[in-house]
């Protein structure tokens, strides 16, 4: 979480998302975006183009040194110009008429849901609990607001053994709380369990250096996670490896963990937006490879700049209902079941470098995806009543911001089909 990464427009465009047509606004149509062709990509001299459409690109930073790996490319059409491309002979309509009927409901999955989903609600809210000291309010695990169904503990740390991880309460956090020990933390997990909540250990994050890139590293990772589950009582594991993931070996590790723990093991993933732009990406490949045991993917729909949607038609700006719907649709139309897709957004403006939306916008996106209502100008090709829910970074930032994320979104999840 909260890890910006270098991203060029070429990487975004070269993702090659499967084309799915959505209804878009007149302004998007007028921007003259052509059909995608990977052979037409050019990036250079501060400009980028594909099939004649010129784009500008600017650096933007997220509290990091630009000399290291700061910023992502924020891409937008150059005043809607087509850069020499012949405009359409028939102008698009000035407004998009409302559909006379709702989009079709997503067809039944071709593969059955996994037998173990951690006994979570049909639609649930996930939040990350910070095991470190930063400007967000520090809280003990037992003080996580009751509206959260799943708590992801951030984060397990890499060890000197390739692939292995460890966990203990951060000394700075303990000091800020006036003393908080590993024993206190274990007791707090038990307390959350008594309240019907689930707790997973998250690996990776903004500064994570965990690498599972070999069979031996996969074994080391599995051994360490199984040990942490036994020691603390975690209900599963969250994969938040923002420096990259190897689908083959991480898949091996996760299957090993499940075989040695429980069929109810919760397995979640928190890829960055760019990681789920194409089924050719390692994160997407991992999700599909473990689909039979995967609980949910809550992609970070923030810190991303503009991204292509499943219509493969335009670079939608982050921080809008159109962005959330269009990008979530990629996963929903390319192999994941709706119950394996959740929407990840920041809990407060200070929680991310970009992409914050009012929690009511998250509800709007959930409605659009689940029932075809409350959409912006982008409508998915069908509805997905099983859309799983929402995630936020972080619980601490939500508490700091007056619990607006959880208090707004969790009750709304109960209104979904």
UniProtKB/TrEMBL annotation:
Listed EC numbers: 3.2.1.14
GO terms of molecular function: carbohydrate binding; chitin binding; endochitinase activity
Keyword Metal-binding: no
Pfam families: CBM_5_12, Glyco_hydro_18
GO cellular component terms listed in the entry, alphabetical order: extracellular region
Domain annotation GH18: ranges: 123-416
PROSITE patterns according to UniProt: GH18_1, GH18_2, PROKAR_LIPOPROTEIN
Signal peptide residues on this chain, from the entry's feature table: 1-22
Enzyme class label: hydrolase
Stretches with biased composition (Pro residues): 88-115
Region annotated Disordered, chain positions: 76-120
GO biological process assignments: carbohydrate metabolic process
InterPro entries: CBM5/12 (IPR003610), CBM_sf_5/12 (IPR036573), Chitinase_II/V-like_cat (IPR011583), GH (IPR017853), Glyco_hydro18_cat (IPR001223), Glyco_hydro_18_chit_AS (IPR001579), Glycosyl_Hydrlase18_Chitinase (IPR050542)
Keyword Signal listed: yes
UniProt keyword list: Carbohydrate metabolism, Glycosidase, Hydrolase, Signal
PANTHER family recorded: ENDOCHITINASE
Family named by the database record: Belongs to the glycosyl hydrolase 18 family.
Protein name: chitinase
Phylogenetic placement of the source organism: Bacteria, Bacillati, Actinomycetota, Actinomycetes, Micromonosporales
């Amino acid at each position: 979480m909260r890890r910006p990464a270098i991203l060029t427009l070429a990487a975004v465009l070269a993702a090659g998302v499967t084309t799915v047509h959505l209804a878009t606004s007149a302004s998007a149509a007028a921007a003259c975006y052509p059909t995608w062709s990977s052979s037409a990509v050019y990036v250079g001299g501060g400009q980028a183009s594909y099939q004649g459409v010129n784009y500008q690109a600017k650096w933007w930073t997220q509290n990091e040194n630009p000399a290291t790996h700061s910023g992502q490319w924020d891409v937008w059409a150059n005043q809607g110009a087509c850069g020499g491309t012949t405009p359409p002979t028939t102008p698009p309509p000035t407004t998009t008429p409302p559909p006379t009927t709702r989009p079709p409901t997503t067809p039944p999955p071709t593969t059955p849901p996994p037998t173990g989903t951690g006994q979570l609600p049909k639609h649930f809210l996930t939040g990350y609990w910070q095991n470190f000291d930063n400007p967000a309010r520090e809280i003990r695990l037992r003080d996580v607001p009751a509206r959260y169904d799943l708590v992801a503990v951030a984060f397990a740390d890499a060890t000197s053994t390739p692939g292995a991880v460890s966990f203990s309460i951060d000394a700075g956090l303990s000091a800020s709380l006036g003393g908080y020990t590993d024993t206190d933390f274990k007791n707090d997990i038990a307390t959350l369990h008594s309240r019907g909540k689930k707790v997973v250990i998250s690996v990776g994050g903004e500064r994570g250096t965990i690498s599972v890139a070999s069979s031996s590293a996969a074994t080391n990772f599995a051994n360490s996670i199984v040990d942490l589950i036994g020691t603390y009582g975690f209900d599963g594991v969250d994969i938040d490896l923002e420096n990259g993931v190897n689908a083959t070996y991480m898949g091996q590790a996760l299957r090993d963990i499940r075989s040695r723990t429980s069929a109810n093991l919760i397995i979640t993933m928190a890829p960055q937006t760019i990681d789920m732009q194409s089924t050719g990406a390692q994160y997407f490949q991992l999700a599909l490879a473990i689909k039979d045991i995967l609980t949910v993917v809550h992609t970070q729909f923030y810190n991303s700049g503009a991204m292509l949607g499943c219509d493969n038609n335009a670079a939608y700006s982050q921080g809008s209902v159109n962005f959330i719907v269009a990008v979530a649709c990629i996963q929903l139309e390319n192999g994941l079941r709706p119950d394996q897709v959740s929407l990840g957004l920041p809990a407060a403006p200070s929680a991310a470098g970009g992409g914050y939306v009012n929690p009511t916008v998250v509800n709007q996106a959930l409605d659009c995806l689940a029932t075809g209502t409350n959409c912006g100008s982008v409508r998915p090709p069908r509805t997905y009543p099983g859309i799983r829910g929402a995630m936020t970074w972080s619980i601490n930032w939500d508490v700091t911001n007056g619990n607006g994320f959880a208090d707004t979104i969790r009750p709304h999840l109960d209104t979904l089909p």
